Amino acid sequence: MEWLQQLINGISLGSIYALIALGYTMVYGIIKLINFAHGEVFMVGSFIGFISISVWGLGFFPALLLSMTACAIFGVLIERIAYKRLRNATRIAALITAIGVSLLIQNGVIYIRGAQPAAYPDVFANTSYNFFGAQISSQAILILSVSVALMLILQFIVHKTKIGKAMRAVSHDAEAAKLMGINVDNIISATFAIGSALAGAAGVIFGVYYTKIDPLMGVIPGVKAFVAAVLGGIGIIPGAMVGGLVLGVVETVVSALGFSLWRDAAAFIILILILIFRPAGIFGKNTREKV
Amino acid sequence: MKLNKITGLFAASILTVGVLAGCGAKNDTDGKDGKAAEEGETIKIGLNLELSGAVASYGSSEAEGIELAIEEINKAGGIDGKTIVPIKMDNKSESSEATSAAIKLITKDKVVAIIGAATSGNTVAQVEIANKNKTVLISPSGTSETVTINKDGKVNEFAFRTSFIDPFQGTVAANFAANELKVKNVAIYSDNASDYSKGLASSFKKDFEAAGGKIVAEEFYIAKDSDFRSILTRIKSSNPEFIFIPGYYEEVGLIVKQAREMGITVPLMGADGWDSPILLDLAGEKALNNTFTTNHYSSEDPDGIIQDFNKKFGEKYNGKKPDSFNALGYDTVYLLADAIKRAGSTDSTKIKEALEATKDLGLVTGLYSVDENHHPIKSATILEYKDGAQIFKTKVNP
Q1: How far off is chain B from A213, nearest CA to CA, in Å?
Q2: Which homologous superfamily is B2-164+304-378 in?
Q3: In angstroms, rounded to a whole number, what is the distance separating the alpha carbons of residues A72 and B299?
Q4: Domain pair B2-164+304-378 / B166-295, same fold
Q5: B220 near A CB under 8 A
Q6: What confidence tens digit (pLDDT) does each residue in A32-76 have?
Q7: Cis bond leading into B117, ω under 30°?
Q8: Predicted pLDDT at B40
Q9: For chain A, what are the domain ranges?
Q10: pLDDT the model gives residue B34
Q11: What is the maximum alpha-carbon separation in chain B?
């Protein structure tokens, strides 16, 4: 039952990628910005969760909520301070700013607490269940269910609420949305808030599942989540979820076949192949750029 | 870097003032040695250590041991009346930083010798500069062969080390697995991004197979990974009775934890790279049961010199129990001080010759002699983790 075990490993990893990828894709969908600081929001969320659990003694769910709230505020702050004034600048200027923000946050955290890693405390009594010969830990089950629940809530917000409708309108055509009386600035902030809250949640989940967190932890998952978002079709929410899961499973399969040293390369080979053969991603429709 | 320099100077001036007040003025008679005449009554030693970054815990631990030893030597009147002044640099656990720190220490601060770095890679990054400028370089814990032997198999003249070398740790682990644990089928899981890990893995493999054992799986990870579950699943399906994981604590902590979660209950073994309190935080007490490490020393060892060191270390650092990096840092200073004393000068070539002649020097981490490859001949200790504590298991001589 090695394969079942590997599939479970892959889905757990993939659901974390998916949560981060959602933030990338939402922000891209609405302002066409690849927010490279997103991986750092994930890292900050992880540290907030760590402090709430180990210093303030909160449980997993309060820590998750606290981290999501704090990250939502943090995401909006980043948007208001760094990106808002660049809204009409070239896209490359905004992209470079995003990289700058990312470096600033990484080094800011290193300056505050040092670069040494921290270990997440055990929040659950970890029991393993035997499932057709594969070991599933209670942690993995909880993490999967939290990720799925968050994605369902997101789908609900985007498709059934007024703010979700407004977000879709702005992403479709910001000018027209403005004419219809939608406050575009607020909607963009809301998008950042939701995306960052998901990254914060991913940070706490990552900490609980993988134990080790450090100020540079956001870099690789951030880049992988970006690949996942492109794979699913950047700007498309279900695409990010599927892209994340596919990427997690592919990486695990590559390791399982004995090519563990190629695991990271696999993600980037996928990125290159997607960009060459299907730049719109799995779920993307080929649309022509408006002139 | 600026800060370090200022604190270094500050510490230096305090030490100098203290000692000058203690012993009366001493005329400098040492005319033939330009360096010593210029510096007067002090011997400058550069510390090039990992004080931040990935393996900060090694470097900082060594700095504690080094500072304790320097304090003791200075209190006892220094080396032939000269006080030791440490100049501390942080190489941020990166080899490029280690190189530039070494250049600065040698050319600007004109140190007599450099102690550091804690890891082999960061030491190798300084070797060429040390050789070129004829400055003695001693790594407290660089266990890779490449620290003292260069690519062409020649000895790096000015490079020395306090710790034993990698192949020795791999050999000890292989013998321990074959003879004490009596296992036949083992797996090796090593870090492909680290020479240290690869070196240990290959010597373990050679000696374990020579002892009649079988390697059923040989897998790799890359430093900074956090997900090891898929490879552990692979290892598990090959049914090993023992897994050798010669890595550094940051990854090993996670590997041990994830392995136990997946129901891998066999003994796990590593080397001195495991030795950090962070390992315990990452893996957790329970997961670490039934794991072994080879190490330089154990504070539980009943030997008199070790118990004495424990006491002095505890007094300086609020009752803290020294780990082996503390001990190696401490020993490195005594090794160097012994050589400077026997050389009777701070001339680097003479210190180097004295170091090469070191024989049966009694250090905390064992009796120390140097062979012709600048490899120490000394003992190794095997420790077992029990409920989060390292228990002294046995001592192995070369």
Answers
A1: 9
A2: Response regulator (3.40.50.2300)
A3: 48
A4: yes
A5: yes
A6: 888 999 999 999 999 999 999 999 999 999 999 999 999 999 999
A7: yes
A8: 58
A9: 12-118+133-219
A10: 43
A11: 73
- Across the interface, of B229, B230, B261, the residue whose CB is closest to A126 is B261
State the sign of the Cα–Cα–Cα–Cα dihedral B318, B319, B322, B323.
negative
Compare CB distances from A117 to B250, B257, B261 and report the shortest one's residue.
Answer: B250
What architecture is domain B166-295?
A: 3-Layer(aba) Sandwich (3.40)
Q: What does the pLDDT look like over B246-305, one tens digit per residue?
A: 999 989 999 999 999 888 999 999 988 898 888 888 888 888 999 999 888 888 888 888
**CB B297 within 8 Å of CB A227:** no
pTM: 0.73
Does A69 reach chain B within 8 Å, measured CB to CB? no
Tell me the CA distances in angstroms from A51 to A47, B115, B237, one per residue in order. 6, 36, 38
E strand or H helix at B197: helix B195-210
Please calculate the CA angle B134-B137-B139 and round it to the nearest 5 degrees.
165
| Torsion angle in degrees (nearest 10) through CA of B259, B263, B264, B268 | 60
Does A259 contact chain B (CB < 8 Å)? no
* Band (B373; pLDDT cuts 50, 70, 90): confident
